């Protein structure tokens, strides 16, 4: 019997995401520190060019985010966040053949992004902000729920769990139930263990080793480890030296059944996906 309890074609607005094969989500940060040169339109064009390159390289999703989750990052008002992401979402939706994902926890941004044509809501706070459940429910879009405890600014201050696997599983299970109660069908949910969010190095490594256990929740899995500190810590590498570590984890995540990889380095990751598919296609 098949262990796949979900449809392998996830409706994402006007497009479908094929979950029968691993998919690559390219990261597009639109915080002021990224694409900073060239003023407003220069920034939009640079972001669109980068998104276009990721699509040409094989990304089927582009994750557009305007709020930095970096520890110590300044809080951003909904208006400011919208001002950052809306022009970029609009441009990508108009110009590129790709599913746009919006990385936001802000209900007003979810609503406007849905109007502008995004196909997926990616919320690192799993719709816990006031009004987020209703905004996501009304959008009709799929939602990625991610495990995190606390807020990005404080989450790394001594996170402790009796068992991180149980913690993540229970958290996601509860958020799934809350979503269903709010009118978001189970079939619209994607799950993510939230690597690097409120976790020690040991938590991250154990979670990765046992990634398969999250398939018990019965929904597709998204994994985001690209260039993260867990690679830096394991290898003793700075952020610009983490490509090979990221690719090793990409291959391992796919082997463990991950459906979507959220990455910075799209061409390199797509080669990993294709190489594994070539082996998989053999007799
Ligand atoms: C270097 C590279 C240092 C990356 C830090 C980072 C995830 C996510 C982020 C994730 C989902 C990040 C928005 C953090 N991570 N969304 N977002 N899953 N669904 N840090 O793992 O990339 S931002």
Summarize, please.
The protein is α/β, with parallel strands linked by helices and 283 residues long. The chain is 41% helix and 15% strand.
What does this structure look like?
By secondary structure, the chain is an alpha/beta fold. The protein has a single domain (9-280), classed as Alpha-Beta Barrel (TIM Barrel), CATH 3.20.20.20. The protein is 41% helix and 15% strand. The strands form 2 sheets. It has an 8-stranded parallel β-sheet with strand order 8-7-6-5-4-3-10-9. Strands 1-2 form a two-stranded antiparallel sheet. Helix 2 (78-95) packs parallel to helix 3 (107-115) and helix 8 (243-255) runs parallel beside helix 9. The radius of gyration is 18 Å and the shape is globular. The two termini are 21 Å apart. The mean pLDDT is 95. Bound molecules: ligand 8Y4. Ligand 8Y4 binds at residues 65, 69, 103, 122, 124, 144, 146, 192, 194-195, 222, 224, 227-228, 239, 262.
Low-confidence stretches: none
Count of individual domains: 1
Helicity level, as a percent range?
40-55%
The proportion of residues in beta strands is: 15-25%
Q: What is the H/E order?
A: EEEHEHEHEHEHEHEHHEH
Sheet with most strands: 8 strands, parallel
Strand order of the largest sheet: 8-7-6-5-4-3-10-9
Between the first and last Cα atoms, what is the distance in angstroms?
A: 21 Å
Radius of gyration: 18 Å
Number of strands: 10
The CATH class assignment is Alpha Beta
* Number of helical elements: 9
The outline comes out as: globular
- Structural category is alpha/beta
Bound molecules: ligand 8Y4
CATH architecture: Alpha-Beta Barrel
């Amino acid at each position: 019997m098949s262990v796949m309890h979900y449809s392998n074609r996830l409706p994402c607005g006007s497009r479908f995401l094929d979950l029968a094969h691993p998919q690559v989500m390219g990261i597009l940060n639109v915080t002021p520190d990224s694409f900073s040169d060239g003023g407003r339109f220069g920034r939009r064009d640079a972001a669109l060019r980068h998104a276009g390159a990721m699509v040409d390289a094989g990304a089927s999703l582009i994750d557009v985010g305007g709020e930095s989750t970096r520890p110590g990052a300044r809080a951003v008002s909904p208006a400011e966040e919208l001002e950052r992401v809306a022009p970029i979402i609009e441009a990508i939706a108009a110009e590129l053949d790709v599913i746009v994902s919006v990385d936001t926890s802000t209900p007003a941004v979810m609503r406007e992004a849905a109007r502008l044509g995004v196909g997926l809501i990616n919320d690192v706070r799993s719709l816990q902000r006031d009004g987020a459940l209703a905004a996501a429910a009304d959008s009709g879009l799929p939602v990625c729920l991610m495990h995190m405890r606390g807020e990005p600014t404080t989450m790394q201050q001594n996170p402790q769990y009796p068992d991180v696997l149980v913690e993540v599983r229970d958290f996601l299970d509860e958020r799934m139930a809350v979503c269903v109660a709010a009118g978001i069908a189970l079939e619209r949910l994607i799950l993510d263990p939230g690597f690097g969010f409120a976790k020690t190095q040991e938590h991250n490594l154990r979670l990765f080793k046992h990634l398969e256990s999250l398939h018990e929740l019965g929904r597709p899995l998204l994994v985001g480890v690209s260039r993260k500190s867990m690679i830096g810590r394991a290898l003793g590498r700075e952020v610009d030296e983490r490509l090979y570590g990221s690719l090793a984890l990409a291959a391992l995540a796919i082997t463990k059944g991950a459906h979507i990889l959220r990455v910075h380095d799209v061409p390199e990751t797509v080669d990993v996906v294709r190489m594994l598919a070539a082996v998989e296609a053999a007799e």
